[in-house]
Amino acid sequence: MLILALETSCDETSAGVVVDGRKILANLVTSQIDIHARYGGVVPELASRKHLEGIGVVIQEALRQAGVAAADLEGICVTRGPGLIGALLVGLATAKAMAFALGIPWVGLHHMEGHVLAVLLEKEVSFPFLALAVSGAHTHIYRVEGIGRYQTLGRTLDDAAGEAYDKVAKLLGLGYPGGALIDRLAAEGEATGLVFPRPLLHQQNLDFSFSGIKTAVLNHVRRLGAPPSEGEIRRICAAFQEAAVEVLTAKILRAVEGTGLGRVVVAGGVACNRGLRKRLLGLAEERGLEVHFPDPALCGDNAAMLGVAGDFYLRRGCVDGLEVNALAHWDLDSANFHQH
Question: Class for domain 2-117+298-339, per CATH?
């Protein structure tokens, strides 16, 4: 099945062409980072306008790179939610219009379902598995029984991990987005004598909290009484990353112990983080676990990741109608296939 996938949930406009839910023919992503960087974060109105300007061009280029015409498409999948409502509507309206004009089925998908299943575009991972989904807007642990069958085991109670990275980077004057910058500076620094809190670390639940770590960084910077030096910034980044990575790894290990599942997929933009990758791969070797990371190109927001679930649903006649709307908030458990 030849599918066009569209992703416009935040500040990346992306179109992908995927065959049989496994083979990527094209995966074009255009970022708006330069536009939002001056504001220190994503401005929803600007994001929506840029999606409107770019989505037609991105689709045309994706089809060109894939070597197919619009008339060859057999289905369309698109992010329905969660995300910025204005941004989502651009992708959703485009998918509806194309599906109607071409006379082909379409389906709206959960953004995190795309992230969790992205690894299947590169290799087969046996079900069931645990998914640690970490991005700028999400930090969840899911039990994944199969495509379309998800159970939330834990979630952040406040900031997402990626959001905390971006906010700490802003506090340190590093710019936006901050995750990759902090990751690089943390590798260059040592956290000697500086320890930030690990919220909820010793509680037996699988929930997360990153707001307290961010506040601890703010208080430390204020106590310095002057802008931190380059060396101090590296020290802060190292200490912050140590805290964040310890919490993430401790919780997923607790989920492994509680469920007995030894397979873990790490997904979302923060799955690119080298500190997290190194720590989890080290633990996997120590404890005999399977830990899978998608290629970095499939960790950030992209359309091709939707092709796995899109192919699965469309083949089974799970088709959405023109009345289906975007959802700014949407729990993955309620997006399960049997409830579609």
Answer: alpha beta
